[in-house]
Amino acid sequence: MATILDGKKIAAKLADKVKENVKRLNEKKIYPTLCVIEVGNDPASKIYLRVKKNLAKKVGIKEKTLNFPADIEQAELINTIKQLNDDEQVNAIMVQLPLPEHLDQEKIIEAIDPKKDADGFHPYNQGRLWQGKTDIVPATVRSVMTFFDEYNIDLEGKNALIIGRSIIVGKPLASRLLEKNATVTIAHSKTRNLADLTKKADIIVSDVGHAHLVTESMIKLGAVLIDVGMNREQGKLLGDVDYEACLPKASAITPVPGGVGPLTVASLMRQVVILTEKQNYGR
Amino acid sequence: MATILDGKKIAAKLADKVKENVKRLNEKKIYPTLCVIEVGNDPASKIYLRVKKNLAKKVGIKEKTLNFPADIEQAELINTIKQLNDDEQVNAIMVQLPLPEHLDQEKIIEAIDPKKDADGFHPYNQGRLWQGKTDIVPATVRSVMTFFDEYNIDLEGKNALIIGRSIIVGKPLASRLLEKNATVTIAHSKTRNLADLTKKADIIVSDVGHAHLVTESMIKLGAVLIDVGMNREQGKLLGDVDYEACLPKASAITPVPGGVGPLTVASLMRQVVILTEKQNYGR
């Protein structure tokens, strides 16, 4: 029977740590501040933003959301970001995605000062990550790595398979796993022989958005399964991994819900603290 | 019997293309210029720099080498780079590696304006590469991809194994192979089961510097073998792949010498042209 990797428990632990970090900064009259840019009124984004706001409040991070109309012009949005870059009261900036179609997401992300890049999506920070600088990391990637840390899952020399190649999860995660000396394979929608790969994998991280893509017959005994997928089917939230079926065969597994998801907002808060510390202590 | 991937032939073809590019730029009074920074007098670097200088001259790229004493202070070197960043006559800057121990290689590479980054080692450019912008690419990575192009080697859905995880070859190459829809595995010195991986690979690119690491019994019939390794043993230059033994079993293979090596300087010249075009036409 697999160890269930408890996202809620680890998230609470991480939030406590962040709260301590913030307290220590406050003692030095430093007040970590996150500025979120929201464009339009996407209902899913609203829910996520409320979760962020609540956790920020709980851990003592100052959070302000700037809401812009869905038809805002790109130049205006970039101008706003530049003002936030120059604002010494703001330590971290994030743009809530997805953005409306008419906006160039890449240009907008690149407008953020890399030093204030809460999401870690700026190409400079992603390049740094590949070069071994691990202080600015996308929140989901930090969450996945936190599970390995917290549950003492050794990665050295292990075969790690990442399914999904986004710049938000799959690709930056590959750099972190390599850094930990895993042998890393990145699979995706064009991969022809997924089951051959999963059967050889000591560790599988899936982020494709395909409910129960990874089945019990595809994994090897004792595999570690980290499920980033969130698939809503008939009102139920399902992961990319067939959790119930894999539970007896895996050595460790994240449930969905209750696995990676809950950790992600706490990871974002941890990033805000790290950015604030870097800005103040230059570390 | 494998197709021998002829680096000299492809290099000559690429050099001709670059010469044409330069000619067209010259007609518009644009003179692509590469500035090489050399610190100290490393004999291996001297040889390589002479090859660069000769090819630059042949294709019409203006090249100037600035030589500094081995004990130059970091601040002075960075100051020089900043002057070159601001110099409109200079389109491309490269720092010949390795640098003397007392210099912080990362800081020096980051001092180069990413727009003039001939080697493509700046973290911003490496991050862009992972995000699918393929105009600024390390020369060896461009060389490897040029073989696939020139010999019509299809990558989609193929199992590609990269042995070696440097920021110069292995890691950025992984991003290019993913972009071409290969399933990519990155192996390295901590990988435990290399032969298991090589036996499954349709394409192997090796860059580890271990003579004849990849043997005939480790590859599958019809594998494509790209050998970036350069190992000098008893006066002989050997690749990472046991060329003679693998030749009958592979479907395509690069010799060493005469494979990836000769193509690399031509790839650098191509990069100088691309940087010049980007600076002038903003593409």
Automatic annotation (TrEMBL), chains A, B:
This protein's pathway: One-carbon metabolism; tetrahydrofolate interconversion
Keywords, comma-separated and alphabetical: Amino-acid biosynthesis, Histidine biosynthesis, Hydrolase, Methionine biosynthesis, Multifunctional enzyme, NADP, One-carbon metabolism, Oxidoreductase, Purine biosynthesis
Gene Ontology biological process terms, A to Z: L-histidine biosynthetic process; methionine biosynthetic process; purine nucleotide biosynthetic process; tetrahydrofolate interconversion
* Keyword Transcription regulation attached: no
Please provide, alphabetically and separated by semicolons, the GO molecular function terms listed in this UniProt record: methenyltetrahydrofolate cyclohydrolase activity; methylenetetrahydrofolate dehydrogenase (NADP+) activity
Q: Where is the Tetrahydrofolate dehydrogenase/cyclohydrolase catalytic domain?
A: 5-119
- Quote a single Gene Ontology cellular component term: cytosol
Query: Which catalytic reaction applies to this protein?
Result: (6R)-5,10-methenyltetrahydrofolate + H2O = (6R)-10-formyltetrahydrofolate + H(+); (6R)-5,10-methylene-5,6,7,8-tetrahydrofolate + NADP(+) = (6R)-5,10-methenyltetrahydrofolate + NADPH
One matching Pfam family, short form? THF_DHG_CYH_C
Give the source's domain of life in one word: Bacteria
Q: What InterPro entries is this protein classified in?
A: Aminoacid_DH-like_N_sf, NAD(P)-bd_dom_sf, THF_DH/CycHdrlase, THF_DH/CycHdrlase_cat_dom, THF_DH/CycHdrlase_CS, THF_DH/CycHdrlase_NAD-bd_dom
Q: Does the keyword Cell wall biogenesis/degradation apply?
A: no
* EC number(s) reported in the record: 1.5.1.5, 3.5.4.9
CDD domains given for it? Answer: NAD_bind_m-THF_DH_Cyclohyd (cd01080)
So where does NADP(+) get bound? 164-166
**What are the residue boundaries of the Tetrahydrofolate dehydrogenase/cyclohydrolase NAD(P)-binding domain, all occurrences included?**
138-279
Family label: Belongs to the tetrahydrofolate dehydrogenase/cyclohydrolase family.
Description of how the protein assembles with itself and partners = Homodimer.
Its function, per the record, reads: Catalyzes the oxidation of 5,10-methylenetetrahydrofolate to 5,10-methenyltetrahydrofolate and then the hydrolysis of 5,10-methenyltetrahydrofolate to 10-formyltetrahydrofolate.
Q: What is this protein called?
A: Bifunctional protein FolD
Record the organism.
Answer: Lactobacillus hominis DSM 23910 = CRBIP 24.179
> Gene behind this chain?
folD
